[in-house]
Amino acid sequence: MKGIAASEALAELLVTIRTGLSEAVAYIMVPTWSPLVMKAEPNAALVAAYQFGMSVRLMRNICFWKEILALPVLEKLALDDLLYGKILPHVRNITSDVQYAVKRTERIVASLSGCGQAQMPHKIPAVFLCFHFLRDIYCKNLCSHKLQPLVDCVLLLGKTLERRLAYGVTESETGGLARRLKKMLVERNEYDSARDIARRFHLKEAF
């Protein structure tokens, strides 16, 4: 009887944790205002930055439950609902302000590399380190598909930066941002795309 009671208590605890995380994800709102809107309203940029920071911290906190909750639950909360449903739409809407967009994308990648480093094989790129709970998907070659929207966002920033070159902005001004994009792609193991960035922006550094 004690074993049954303990199992029931554990099941209730897991439901409570899952419900709490689901409610937190549903509650948080990351504005998708354009840079023009944020410049027009004095407090808009502060609100957007605060909500973005909250969402990134929440995503990282969800990852901390990787040993407790089921993989599909964590994947849905952290990736589908939060990262792709709320965080990346915000970044896409500020791509015209490419410097801020790059900085916020770096924060996303950094938040995904803060956990589980000791347990993960050294060959797995940094963007996966927080996603220890995605190890099975990674081994089945599905993780690349699940994280492709994040890569697409980085590539979009590369195209935005390239348009600035076409408008007359010098390579010295865009080179630093291009290097940061290349670094994120390398961490994601997207070497072909990283080489393309290096070629387009004439970056000479080795990977």
Automatic annotation (TrEMBL):
GO BP terms, alphabetized: mRNA splicing, via spliceosome
Full protein name: GC-rich sequence DNA-binding factor-like protein, putative
Keywords, ordered alphabetically: DNA-binding, Nucleus
CC terms in the record's Gene Ontology section: nucleus
Superkingdom, natural source: Eukaryota
Record bears the keyword DNA-binding: yes
Predominant place of localization: nucleus
Molecular-function annotations in GO: DNA binding
PANTHER family found in the cross-reference section: GC-RICH SEQUENCE DNA-BINDING FACTOR, LD29489P
Cellular localization per UniProt: Nucleus
